[in-house]
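SAMPLE LOG
Freezer: B-3
Tube label: C17
Construct: single chain, 318 aa
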Amino acid sequence: MKLSNDGNDTVKLCKTEFETRSRFREHLPKAVEDIVRSCYDKECFEHIDAELIPSQESVVEIITRLREILFPGYFIKERMDSVNLGYQLGQSVDALFDLLAEQITHSIRHECLRYSQPCVQCVERGYQEALMFLESIPTIRRILATDVRAAYEGDPAAKSYDEIVFSYPGIFAITVYRVAHQLFEQGGTLLPRIMTEHAHSITGIDIHPGARIGESFFIDHGTGVVIGETTVIGNNVRIYQGVTLGALSLPRDAGEQLRGKRRHPTIEDNVIIYAGATILGKEAVIGSRSVIGGNVWITEPVPPDTKVVLETPRLIYK
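STRUCTURE (predicted):
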């Protein structure tokens, strides 16, 4: 009878793996030295000896708490009623106030120290901006209500307002945009961008917080929608998936020349833009009550009450 050598083989294998690992680990100090040296290369980017930037984890928590406040009773585990409404909202607002003020302070202090800007009393301004934002919440809630109603009126598949608030990606993206836009208007840049990029990562809807969007805005389906920084959208506008409201292609050295200037379209009131439409540049002003068909490419003005569609394609059946 032949005895098994499995135990000895296992030991030999473990020793071989350990020796292999150790042999390669000997090269790690050199790799670390090279990485550290690269951090002093001015052509690369680093964030060393700088103030903390807003935490993405904290920004997500801010958005979560804001949804609880903007849509009371929808996104909490406990039951909310009129008796405990003030108590529960008070707790949420109190926690949000400190969290938001801290992240705004980080953002302001980061800009001051990294770019040698004049002192603006970061902590005091952080709390001031947080309070100003909280005071704007009733207005944001009223506008969001028009967005939810627009979704219900524009989508026959919607069975209730609750379904829209709970599950529509367009409403989530618009909610985050409305919040981020208020902070952007107050002078913030970094925090609002982190907010809208979080919504972008979840929904596939990319709305720059600097865009100006009117009431009763509805994004149906939404995946692939892009709305650029200087886009202006009027009231009661509906757009579908894959729509781009962007800028024309720019030469490499145009960044500094055009930064902060108008370069995106204007969409006037009561416009519908169907899936896949691409509307580019500040000259592309889409007049009121117009309908833009799917997959069109527009860089020029469209008069009011106009329908723009592609010619019917010739399909080939084989």
